[in-house]
Amino acid sequence: MLGINPDKVCHVIVKAREFDAKEGVSDPDSGSNASDDRMADILEDFRDDATLRELMAFIRGLNEEEQINLVALAWLGRGTYDKSEWKAALEEARAAHNKRTAEYLIGMPMLGDFLEEGLAAFGKSCESFEMGRM
């Protein structure tokens, strides 16, 4: 059984994809009005990026069990474990849990895709979550 609300997972998916869409800084000394630059700076990955800070804060705000489930779900979606090995994935995530869970997950390429695949293994999707955001 999934030990984290799918809406919380969907929030992480959305924010992870927003962060993954960022690119390297091309204008480090931009001092002009953002609208003059056609808001291009918003797609750049600055150290103090608001999307990154929000995603980190959200993951850190989850309780320990939710963080463990999120990691195991990412592993499931990545193919490290399959659905029949869910308990083993949870045990491994529990054993590896530490205070750097947010950094670990954010450093995982394709985190949003992995979480989405993990949810799908449980027959869940973010479709209703996305509809609620419109």
Tell me the layout of helices and strands.
Blueprint: H1 6-20, H2 50-61, H3 64-78, H4 86-96, H5 101-106, H6 111-121, H7 127-133
Description of the structure:
By secondary structure, the chain is an all-alpha fold. The protein is built from seven helices and no strands. The chain has helices at residues 6-20, 50-61, 64-78, 86-96, 101-106, 111-121, 127-133. The longest helix is centred in the first third of the chain and has 15 residues, at 6-20. Mean pLDDT is 85; it is low at 42-46.
Task: Sum this structure up briefly.
This protein has 134 residues and is mostly helical. Helix content is 57%, strand content 0%.
Helix/strand order = HHHHHHH
Helix content: 55-70%
The structure class reads: mainly alpha
Rg over C-alpha atoms, rounded to the nearest angstrom: 16 Å
Main sheet properties:
none
Contiguous low-pLDDT stretches (5 residues minimum) are: 42-46
Give the strand tally. Answer: 0
As an assembly, this protein is single chain
Distance between the termini: 29 Å
Number of helices: 7
Shape: globular
The average pLDDT score comes to 85
Q: What fraction of the residues are assigned to beta strands by DSSP?
A: under 5%
